[in-house]
Amino acid sequence: MAGRSSAVRRVGTPVSPSPHSKASITMEEWEAKAQLGDLESRSVLAVKAASERPQLPFKFATDEAGPSSRPSTPLRTKLGPGPSSRPSTPGIPSSRSQQVGQSHALHPKQPVQTPQQFYDWFALIDRSVAHSQEAHFRQHLLSVSEHLELCDRLVERVEKVEREVDGMLEGWRSVEEGGKSLQDASQKLLEERDRLVDLQEAIGSRLEYFQELEHATRMLNHPGESLVLQTDFLYMAERVDICIDFLKAHRHFKEAEVYLLRFQQCMTRAMTLIKMYFIGSLRALTQDVSRRLSEKDVSQTAQMHLLYTRFTSVSAQLEPLLSELERRARSHPDELGALLAECHSAYFSARKALLIGRIAEEIRGLDPTRTELVELTRSGCSYLKQLCTDEFNLYRSFFSSGRDMLYQYLENLCDYLYDDLRPRILHESRLTALCEVCTVLQALMVLDLPTLEDGSSDEEPADELTLDFEHARKEHGLGRLHIRQLLQMVLQDAQTRLFFKAQSVIQSEIRYYAPKPEDLAYPDKLIAARQPATGNEIREKESISQLFQLSSLDKRETWFPTLSKTVWVLSQLHDFVQPAIFDDLAQEAINLCRQSLSAAADMLSSKNPPSTVLDGYLFLIRHLLILKEMTRNLDPVQKDTGRGSNDPYGVTDTLASMLTRTTNILPTSLFASFGMPRGDETTDAKHGIDLELKRACEALISHMSDPVIVPLRSFVDQVNTHQTSAKPGLLVTQEWAKQSVAENLDADFRSACLRDLRHGVARLRLYLEERRTVDVLVQHVRERVEEEYVGFREVAKNMYAGALRERLLTDEGLKGMLIEVCEERED
To answer: What pLDDT, on a 0 to 100 scale, did the predictor assign at position 311?
Structure first.
């Protein structure tokens, strides 16, 4: 029953309407209320068209000519008394349909008579419909299964191919490993072959050094001196030298020491042959030249040809051999140094034997006993310089070593002249002659200065002899000839004699000089010096000016003799004495000159006319300024800073600094603040000049200003003293304090300025030509006068009234009057 009820439910029997159901509407009403659009209409038509002819299941399909597969409309029948009715069974088919249906598997085998039979038949139909609807799924499942089977077969084939490939790869690897092993074995065989070949070549190359001994010994056993001229001889010597160096570096080889000793013997034999050939050729050439020179009437040109041209032509053949000997003597000095020394000695002996007679004859021609010293020095040293130059060039055409022996040989040649020249120099008493001798010697050395090519420095030239030896050591050559080394001893003798003679002149003509009346004829000498100077005086001034560059050389004839002598002596010594020695000598000369100037100024001031006191101060200041300027130019530090020759106002600026910011007597501390020494620091010449100049300037300023300001200062001091006394109110009752006294003091002050101050300034301009120097001193005189007068004016204004105040000079009036008084006027 349950199955039946379920079957009835599956058929979908309609249920009778409920009595309370809503009223139904017609199709027309429904369409009127719910109108369809175009899209909805097309969709309905498409569904309708699809549902009109549904496709029958595959198993029910008939051929194209058969009847339509559309089932007939079932008929509704009531199956029971209920309100609801079951679906109607399919309609009875037509006769053709029945015939076909009877043959189909779905047709009942017997007519349906009971509902159960109908339900069984309907279930069969239902299963058939479901089976036909799932046909495409089964078809797809079938195709998928076939595809999977195909994939499985492909996988099997791929796995089979992979197994084949793995086998092939395994075989290839085995072949590769076998080939690599064969390659490694072959490579090892090749390396072993190359090692054996290299070993063979190395043994052969090392055996060549040992085999060279046989070739060298065989060549050296050939007799005859012409062996050294063969081309293979020098090549053999070079090979032997190489073998010696090789064996020294490989002493661990078997029998290396024995072969090294034999090679060294071969080298010594080869170099001995060179020495013997050189000495033999030199001896033969010397004998031939000596024989030709001993002949009569041999001209100077012929002598030069025999002594130099012949030797130079022979050197072209011998120089390659000697170069080999020198090079190996530097490498093996213990074995071959003696052979080279024998060649040098033989050469110098031969040259000395040829030149001694000629040099003696030339010196006798100079007549050393009668010829003037300077001329003898010039001609003799010039001859020796040319001789040494020729000998040096000739020696360099043979050798490139032996510098010490060469200079010793040249010094021996020069001794023939020095033996006559040195005594003359040491006994010469003229300072000018000694200076000229030094000038001649230095002129011969002027081309001997170090250059950049010789390894010198532009900033600080080193000792020339040291540079020469250093250069020769580095380059293994002779360089160029240095005449300075040959003339140095004579120059030192001349400089020593010049130094002692200069000391004698300083003591006799500066320290112990006794002034003559005409030496103190000042200011007459200054007035007379304004005449034009002669040509000789101008040239002498210019020569000294190049050294000291003094600004007062145009009045050199007005100098005190000790100052002139000091300048002359130092100018003579400056270029011929060592700097340290010159500095000591200059300090001594300048100190003695300063002392002589102070003594002369005292003598000039002690004359009867009162004006000579001012002349004494001005005389001392004038000469001290010149002396200070000279010492400043001699100071190397001042020259380096450019304060020597390039600053013509250096002394004036120093003087201005000394006298700045003071109107009283200048204290010592003020000068010390400007780098000036104290009173006990007189060891340095410049300090002594500064101290003496300070005292002279103080005395000059006081001497020029005191005649003008002393009356005013006395009046002011009396007033100040009276005001500080017990009765200051009685000042106007004093005779010296009356207004007329003040008026007289003012008038006397103006007269003294016009008379005494103007005279002092004029005399100051006469002694000191430099306008700036005069202005510095005059400025301090004016400041002192202005200070005293301002003090007097203040006291007078406080004491008196009336016209006196109007007559007193204002600051502008006082300055204008002093400027007018102190200005320079034409005489």
So the answer is: 92
Residue ranges of the alpha helices (H) in 724-769?
739-752, 758-767
pLDDT-based confidence at residue 161 (cuts at 50, 70, 90): very high
End-to-end C-alpha distance for the chain, whole angstroms: 176
By residue range, what is the domain housing residue 582? 513-625
- pLDDT for 729 equals 56
Contact criterion met (CB below 8 Å) for 452 and 590: no
The two most distant CA atoms of the chain are separated, in Å, by: 197
Cα atoms in the Cβ-side hemisphere of radius 13 Å centred on 712 = 27
- The residue among 685, 684, 657, 652 whose CA lies nearest residue 671 is 657
Provide the percentage of residues in the chain whose pLDDT is more than 90.
10
b/e string for 612-646 if b means 16 or more Cβ within 10 A? bbbbbbbbbbbbbbbbbbbbbbbbeebeeeebbbe
Between the CA of residue 374 and those of 383, 437, 489, 501, what are the distances in Å?
Answer: 14, 5, 16, 17
Token pair listed for 232: 């293979």
Q: Return the pLDDT at 279.
A: 92
DSSP 144-188: HHHHHHHHHHHHHHHHHHHHHHHHHHHHHHHHHHHHHHHHHHHHH
- The answer to whether residue 751 is domain-embedded is yes
Whether residue 486 is found in the same domain as residue 362: yes
Based on the domain organization, do 331 and 355 belong to the same domain? Answer: yes
Q: What angle do CA 162, 167, 170 make, to 5 degrees?
A: 125
Task: State the Cα–Cα distance between residues 654 and 770, nearest whole angstrom.
Answer: 14
For residues 256 and 576, what is the distance between their CA atoms, to the nearest angstrom? 63
How many angstroms separate the CA atoms of 702 and 738, rounded?
29
Do residue 318 and residue 340 come from a single domain? no
Q: How far is CA 681 from CA 631, 686, 689, 690, 696, in A?
A: 17, 10, 11, 11, 17
Rounded to an integer, what distance in angstroms lies between the CA atom of residue 418 and that of residue 489? 9
Residue 138 has pLDDT above 70, yes or no: yes
The answer to whether residues 473 and 599 belong to one domain is no
Q: Which residues have a Cβ under 8 Å from the Cβ of 785 and sit 6 or more positions away?
A: 705, 708, 709, 753, 757, 818
Q: At which of 555, 590, 625 does a domain end? A: 625
523: cis peptide before it, omega within 30°? yes
pLDDT digits (tens, 9 = 90+) for 682-724: 447 788 888 888 898 988 888 888 888 888 888 888 888 877 7
For residue 691, is it within any domain? no
- Classify the C-alpha dihedral 469-475-478-481 as positive or negative: negative
- H or E, element range at 83: none
**CA 716 – CA 721 distance, rounded (Å):** 8
The reply to whether 331 and 478 lie within a common domain is yes
For residues 308 and 344, membership in a common domain is answered with no
- Tens of pLDDT, residues 354-392: 988 888 888 777 776 667 777 877 887 888 888 888 999
The answer as to whether 349 is a domain residue is yes
- What pLDDT digit, counting tens, does each position of 424-455 carry? 777 776 777 777 777 777 777 765 544 434 44
What is each CA distance from 291 to 29, 296, 347, 394, 395, in whole angstroms?
171, 11, 18, 21, 22
Q: Specify if 400 maps to a domain.
A: yes
Would you place residue 69 in the very low, low, confident or very high pLDDT band (cuts 50, 70, 90)? very low
Span of 248-257, 477-486, 600-609 with lowest mean pLDDT: 477-486
415-422 long-range contacts, Cβ below 8 Å, gap at least 24?
Answer: 416/356, 416/359, 416/360, 416/363, 417/363, 417/368, 417/380, 417/381, 417/383, 417/384, 418/489, 418/490, 420/363, 420/368, 420/369, 420/376, 421/368, 421/376, 421/377, 421/380, 421/490, 422/490, 422/493
Mean pLDDT across the stretch 243-272?
86
Residue found by looking up tokens 């001609």 in the block: 379
Tell me, yes or no, whether 196 and 274 share the same domain.
Answer: yes
- Residue pLDDT, tens place only, 324-336: 899 888 888 888 8
Same domain membership, residue 341 and residue 318: no
Note whether 439 and 380 are within 8 A (CB): no
Q: How many domains does the chain have?
A: 4
